[in-house]
Amino acid sequence: MDSYGYVKKHFYNGKHPLCACGCGNEVGFKKFKFLKYYKDHKNFVKWTNEQKENYKEKFSDKTKYGEGNQQLTLNLQKPTKSYKNKH
Hints:
Elements: H1 3-11, E1 29-30, E2 33-34, H2 49-59, H3 62-65, H4 70-77
Antiparallel strand pairs: 1-2
């Protein structure tokens, strides 16, 4: 039995999983697991308000990602090398 058949039989009761967006398409199988969405359907899923708030909280830490990150500011101020063609 190949990995596809094994995972389908033992983890999904012999049924091929469907896209999480609700379209009904069968998802792909890669690296010993089924994907969650069919092709690019993850881009069309509407987030709930709770998911949006969790995302905002996770990435609104200014000391890590924004104004408080002095290393990022220093890196941006360093001059860059010019790679123009020299003839």
